[in-house]
Design goal:
The protein is of the alpha/beta class and 388 residues long. It is built from seven helices and 19 strands. It folds into four domains: 48 residues; 113 residues, Immunoglobulin-like; 49 residues, no CATH class; 144 residues, 3-Layer(aba) Sandwich (Rossmann fold), CATH 3.40.50.
Length: 388
């Protein structure tokens, strides 16, 4: 409005000059002002119809906390005229953020597109997107402006952000709880023909007292419970765990600030647990929903964890009707369920407790208390605490 009043004021000054000072000079000023106004209007109208935009990235995969460049390309069909001024606002999902200003101003001056580079930082795992949130064009005189976002044709760019695999060290209480839930070969816990009565007084493999530094995978947990002290098997046979883990990411505001952070912590806490178990020699299964289907990953070595890490980069929340549709994949010992439920999601939490038994791992950020007998909380450092 101010620009329009100012331009009108210039016209009045030209009239004043033409009437009181110099007729030809005033008329020339009026003609120039009129021509400028008409040309600005023509470019403005053509730009609204002909401006196009595209967003692209060199790769669709990024590491968490990594910065990468996107290219925003503006093209026009009104050359040799330049376009009106376009003011773009770059939007992202909450697991990505723009480094610097989200507002960009540009004009297309030639047949070749104008390319603008934008730096993006990946701050949370799972699939995120970068898109043109808003595009407003302004005429050269600053009199008119309009939003043309819908007609730009700019499609979002989807970026898969790899979660980290945190190293948390050997958290013995977690490992012991997992081992006690696991199924072992009966021969590991009963009499065998390989040895006579052992020094511990129990038939089976020979044992000795646990010494700090011993691999936890060789602790005989059942026998240790009877003896009220940790006992380590001396034989080379190591029982393998058949513990099953389930990742539960119910539909919510997937990219809505706190919930997005909660998903990020939940996924990385699960990877931290798997990494810890693999390093101690345990094997387990991991059930998760990705790419529109439920999958089961057999975790036997560190390479299996890294392969899972790559797949979880394309994780999204799933529709409610398939939330517990993992069927036979999740049938094993009582599962350990990593869930991104929060205390403000009572319906999703109640459904989880109804459909899933075993143990539950939530984040401290979730605000969830002891809602079942065996509940663990993971903090931002991926330390696991069992609620008593």
């Amino acid at each position: 409005m101010k620009n329009a009043i100012g331009y009108l004021g210039c016209g009045l000054i030209a009239l004043f000059v033409a009437y009181f000072i110099n007729a030809s000079g005033g008329v020339l000023l009026l003609q120039l002002l009129t021509l400028g106004f008409l040309l600005s209007c023509l470019i403005y109208v053509l730009t609204k119809k002909r401006l196009r935009c595209s967003v692209s990235a060199a790769s669709d995969v990024a590491n968490k906390n990594e910065q990468f460049e996107l290219e925003i390309s503006l093209s026009s069909g009104i050359f040799p005229l330049p376009t009106a001024m376009a003011e773009l606002t770059v939007g992202t999902t909450d697991n990505l953020e723009v480094v610097g200003s989200r507002q960009i101003s540009a004009v297309v001056m030639s047949k070749r597109p104008s390319v603008i580079k934008v730096v993006i930082k990946a701050v949370g795992c799972t699939t995120g997107s970068v898109f043109i949130e808003k595009c407003v064009i302004h005429d050269y005189l600053g009199i008119a402006h309009t939003e043309v976002t819908a007609s730009l044709g700019a499609q979002p760019v989807y970026i898969k952000v790899l979660p980290n695999i945190p190293e948390t060290g050997g958290q013995k209480e977690v490992l012991r709880s997992t081992a006690e839930n696991s199924s072992f070969d009966d021969k590991d816990e009963t009499e065998t023909n390989e040895t006579s009565l052992t020094p511990t007084g129990f038939p089976g493999f020979e044992h000795r007292d646990y010494i700090p530094g011993d691999s936890l995978k060789r602790i005989n947990w059942k026998l240790s419970t009877k003896k009220e002290g940790l006992l380590v098997r001396l034989d080379e046979k190591v029982a393998s765990s058949s513990q099953m883990f389930i990742l539960d990411i119910p539909r919510g505001d997937m990219f809505g600030g706190v919930y997005m952070k909660n998903i990020d912590t939940t996924v990385e806490a699960a990877l931290a647990m798997l990494d810890m178990l693999v390093r101690e020699g345990f094997e387990c299964g991991f059930v998760y929903f990705c790419g529109g289907v439920w999958k089961k990953a057999d975790i036997k070595q560190y390479g299996d964890v890294t392969a899972l890490q790559e797949d979880l980069a394309q994780l999204t929340a799933y529709p409610e009707d398939v939330r517990f549709a993992y069927g036979e994949l999740g049938k094993s010992t009582p599962p350990v369920c990593f869930s991104s439920c929060m205390e403000n999601m009572p319906g999703e939490l109640a459904a989880l407790l109804e459909h899933t038994g075993g143990s539950y791992v939530f984040t401290k950020l979730s605000g969830i208390k002891k809602v079942a007998n065996n509940v663990w909380l993971a903090d931002d450092n991926y330390e696991f605490e069992r609620l008593s």
